[in-house]
Every structure is written in C-alpha cells, then in structure tokens.
Specification:
Elements lengths: L12 H11 L3 E3 L6 E3 L1 H20 L3 E2 L5 E3 H6 L1 H7 L4 E6 L2 E9 L4 H11 L8 E10 L13 E11 L2 H21 L6 E4 L9 E10 L5 E10 L1 H6 L4 E2 L5 E2 L2 E8 L1 H10 L16 E5 L8 H13 L5 E3 L7 H10 L4 E5 L1 H5 L2 E6 L5 E5 L3 H26 L1 E3 L3 H11 L2 E6 L3 H6 L5 E6 L17 E7 L2
Parallel strand pairs: 3-7, 15-16, 15-17, 20-21
Antiparallel strand pairs: 1-2, 4-6, 5-6, 7-8, 8-14, 9-10, 10-11, 11-14, 12-13, 17-18, 18-19, 21-23, 22-23
Helix pairs in contact: 2-6
This protein binds zinc ion (ZN).
Length: 473
C-alpha cells in the first residue's frame, strides 16, 4: 500500500474517491492524460457487469457484433446535430502509414454513424426488421474534467443499435432497454435510480428523445448512469436507410440506441464505499468471500490449512479466495480485504477448529458471528443475499433523505449548491428557465411524469410537469 489512509470520506469525498480507486487497485494512471488503466480487480468487476447485461441483451433478442474503431470524418459530418454535440471532443487521425490521409479518421466517439452506414446495406425490406445489434467497445471523447470511471477520455461500454418498422416499436425498444438498465443498477449494483426523459437541451444531440436513469451520490451530486435514445429520423435520412414496407412502398425505419459504460463502476464505488474502502455488492464482487486462516508463527499450520481448503470447497457456490500469505498479520489482511470491499470474511484458527466453528463477518460491519462449520454453507449463502439487500436499502434510505420537493429556485438554489441532493420542482419547460440552474452549478436531470407543483421553479408560468434538478458529475 502506497498510502497510509484514505482521505476522510465525510470531509473530502472527492479525494476519498480518488484514493480508493487507486488503493483498492481498480485503476492506475496511463501515460496519456485522461486515459486510465483498469487493473485486473477493476476489470473483473466490469466483466461481471458485462456478463449480467450481455445475457439480458441477448435474452431481449439482440445479437452482438463488432464495428471499426475508425470512422470517416465525413460520416460524423453527415448528421449536423450530432457534430455540434461532439465537435470539441473528437480525436482525429490525420496521418497513417507514413503519410497524410486523404480523409481524416475519427476515433469513434460513438458508433451511430458507422452502424447506420451498415444498416443501409443490410435493411432492404420489412422482413429485415427489426434489426437489433449490440456492440461492446471502447470509445474516445476528449474530456477536460477527469475522474476515474466517471469521466475519462477513453471508456468502455456497450452500445445497442436497433431499427424498427414503426415508431411505436422503436419506442417500446427504448423503454425495454431502459428497464433492463434499471434492473441492472438496482438488483445487481444495489444502486437505487430514477428514470425519466432528458430535457431538450440535455438530450443526446442526435435523438428525438433521450431517457436516462440517474443515481444520487453521497456527496449530493447526481450521476447519469446510462441512456436509451429514440433517434431522430435524420440518421435514417442521412445514411439513406430505406426499406420496402408491407404495402410495397419505400419507408424510413425508426432507430434507437442505448448505452451503459464503465461509469457504472464509479457510481457503485461512490454509492457504497466507506472509510475503510470499497464495499462491493455480492452479485458483482470479483471475490465474494475471503477466508483468512489464522496461522501461527514457527508452528505447524498444516491442519489449519487443510481445514481451510475443505471449507473453500464447501463454499464453491461463491467466488472464494483463501489468503494464505504467511508474511502478513491477520490484521493487515483484514485491512486489505476490507479496502477491496469483499462482502464476507471468514476467519479460522486452531482454536476455532477445535470447536468446529469459524468466525464469519460481513463488510457492512453489521454481523460477526461464530458459526458451526456444519452449517456454514447455508449461513454464508444467506449472508451474501442479505448483504446485497441491505446495501440497496441503505442507498435507498439515503436517496429518500436527500430528495427535496421545493417550489422556487430562489429559495432552494443556495441550499442545493451547498449540500447537493435531488430537488423535485415544477418547470414550464422553457430552456431559459433551465439556464438559471447553472448559476447554482445544477442541471435538470430528468422530467418526472407527475405534476405536483403548479408553477415553474423560476418564472410565473404554469409547470408542465415536475422535474428533477441536481448538481451532477
Ligand atoms: Zn419557467
């Protein structure tokens, strides 16, 4: 460990986050500014998330494909709105093979354009629809403000791209995948989220509608966890995607795209971590159980090590690691595995073996009990489930405690700027009123369906519906 202690989570959350992602060995710095190396422990978390999401993507009728990293610059320019949103973030290759390229290549900021180019080739008739493709990839957006996992120049994600004969079908697709994301966030990452539409100014530039799911971090700032878009018909027009419909006429398909990134890991670290380090939800933790044999110095530890191996075998339903390192004290091992957020720890020494028990503790600090070895499988199974559930409940309680309903920005703006939190308020939907939020470093996060407040948070006009407002990452 390079650092003695993590920064105080209550006093300097930002520094704590920075410390924990490095100290727990999730990431390391790369030589290129803005890029991060995701180390094996971080990659193992991402792989678990990928496996869960990939299975659901396939179960909902999508197929995986791979598209090139390089996109002709003219492709990006084809969709004007798209360019406006991306222009400063693009990384462009002008030279290759020892000479200047005839047409510069963009390192993909998203794959919409290249995939739509291919869709135009693949979609000819209504029989080719729906076309439902997913792509696991990395993308590049030249970021200025950086934070590991949350905002990085290169990041990993999946992007789904689909084409449908009718707008209704496309809309259903957008909502289906949004719901899959909500399921992933809440039931696996144990992060409560709010879903809803983005405002016109906050939506993806190439979209007709952007749905988001948002989480609130312990420092009171919101994280956009992922998005699902109903794309504008402009994409189909620009890339000349046309199909012959059942009536024999040429028509434009309705397109969607949806993506979730390695940012989910950052949100998970922030949501659950504590002063000791990471706290990982069992369902995505690379190591669910760590067994620490209490080894005696200069003594025969063979019986203890034997019992520990049998115990590991018994717990083969879980991802288990045995820490047999003889050079470290049990205390140092506890520190290490707590920092890494392993949900369940089992300690077992010679005296426990005599009594046919082991000490089982959870990472939440709620239980530490002596459990009969005969009963330990059942106990650990139940404990992993209950840790998963408790983590979600804790996060949900915090979300509810930091959710405020207020009428006027003039009254709640300063408080929001200082303490953060979700603010539910009314909005006339005028972007001019929305701009007022920036004075308090806040943005609209998503539109809510209900209307509980009569007036706009800023002007005297009627509210169209409630909106959720917060500072954000
Ligand atoms: Zn207004």
């Amino acid at each position: 460990m390079s650092k003695e202690k993590l920064a105080d989570i209550k006093k300097d959350f930002s520094q704590w986050y920075q410390d924990v992602v490095y100290e727990a060995e999730l990431v390391d710095q790369a030589p290129v500014r803005g890029c991060f190396v995701i180390r094996p422990y971080g990659t193992a978390i991402w792989e678990n998330i990928q496996n869960i999401l990939d299975a659901r993507i396939k179960a909902t009728g999508h197929e995986n494909a791979s598209f090139p990293l390089f996109i002709p610059q003219s492709f990006i320019a084809k969709e004007a709105e798209h360019v406006e949103g991306f222009a400063p973030e693009l990384a462009i290759v002008t030279h290759a093979g020892g000479k200047e390229l005839e047409e510069p290549l963009v390192v993909r900021p998203t794959s919409e354009t290249i995939i739509h180019f291919m869709f135009a080739k693949w979609i000819k008739s209504w029989r080719d629809l729906p076309l439902k493709i997913n792509h696991w990839a990395n993308v590049v957006r030249w970021e200025m403000r950086l934070r590991a996992f949350i905002r990085t120049t290169e990041f990993f994600w999946q992007e789904g791209h689909t084409a449908h004969a009718t707008e209704q079908e496309a809309q259903e697709e957008v909502l289906t995948m949004l719901q899959e994301y909500v399921n992933l966030a809440q039931n696996y990452l144990a992060i409560p989220v709010i879903k809803g539409l983005k405002s016109e100014s906050e939506k993806f530039p190439g979209a007709e509608k952007t749905y988001t799911f948002e989480a609130l971090m312990p420092d009171g700032r919101a994280v956009q966890m992922g998005t699902s878009h109903l794309l504008s018909q402009n994409f189909a027009k620009a890339f000349e995607i046309q199909f012959q419909n059942k009536e024999g006429k040429m028509a434009l398909p309705y397109l969607t795209s949806w993506g979730a990134t390695t940012r989910l890991i950052g949100a998970m670290v922030m949501t659950h971590g504590d002063q000791k380090g990471l706290v990982l939800p069992p369902k995505v933790a690379p190591i669910q159980v760590v067994i620490i044999p209490i080894l005696r110095k200069n003594a025969d530890n063979s019986l203890t090590l034997e019992v520990v191996d049998v115990l590991k075998e018994k717990l083969n339903f879980a991802r288990v690691v045995v820490d047999k390192d003889e050079t470290k004290s049990p205390g140092a091992k506890f520190y290490k595995w707590e920092l890494k957020g392993v949900p369940v720890r089992i300690e077992i020494g010679p005296r426990d073996i005599e009594n046919k028990v082991a000490i089982v503790a959870d990472r939440l600090g709620e239980t530490k009990e002596s459990i009969a070895l005969d009963n330990i499988e059942h106990y650990v199974k139940t404990l992993l489930d209950s840790v998963q559930t408790k983590m979600f409940e804790r996060a949900k309680e915090r979300l509810e405690a930091n959710w405020h309903k207020k009428e006027k920005l003039a009254d709640f703006g300063k408080e929001m700027q200082k303490s953060g939190g979700f603010y539910q308020t009314g909005w006339c939907r005028d972007p001019e009123c929305e701009k007022e939020l920036k004075k308090h470093q806040a943005f609209t996060r998503c539109l809510l369906e209900e209307k509980t407040l009569a007036k706009c948070f800023h002007c005297d006009k009627d509210s169209v519906s409630d909106v959720l407002v917060a500072k954000s990452y």
